[in-house]
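Annex B. Sample input.
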Amino acid sequence: MKLYSELAEYYFTIEEASRKFSEEILFLRETFKRHKIQTVLDIGCGTGEHIKELQGMGFKPLGVDGSPRMLEIAKVRFPHCQFELGKMEAYVAKQPVDAVICLYGTFNYLINDDLVQNFLRNCHKNLKQAGLLVLEIWNADPIHRIKRKPITTVSNVRQGATSIRRNRGFRLTRADDVAIVEVNYVYNLNQKDLKDKHTMRVFHFPQVQNFLDDNKFDVLHVYSNYDGEKYIKTGARMLIVAKKRS
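Annex B, continued. Sample output.
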């Protein structure tokens, strides 16, 4: 996927256009303080922006990502932070932590049940007793309703001398219990087009709840966004805070 390789140096600028990064950090800070979290594992940390902010607030985070290029940039930008290369479904930490986070729809790259089970099983291993798991997952319900969306421009951003236009469309390619979406992008960098395709799985909340229960997690909260608004079935995402049980 070119977003995580050829476009890695622009990744955060591209994503930030559709995010509220300060709200994400505030949500994590308040959640972690409420549960007395100190050590944090960020699975799918990208170029490390969450790691940098969390460390600046006094937490002890470690970032893990499967893209060598993304981590190369993270280490250059934030040399005082800790990063490791690892596949999200297979990563086992050297020591258990208080919280694991997996944001930006990274969970949606787990496109079959085995990958989901492996990921959650390792999250359970990676957490201390009663540790927290925070997941941001794209919701299946609106995708099933829309089914297909043509490629249109979703953002225009600039990083240094490079202007970047992001165009995105998607189509539902499998619509049974395993809902698979092909997301197609065309990035225009200073008038040069770059095409990218991501295959992702979207989930209904009851599916995720069952996966979590199977892997000994209890759901504490489900939100629609980082403002803490209650999850609604028709919303674009689910933000889940779960707790490891013994």
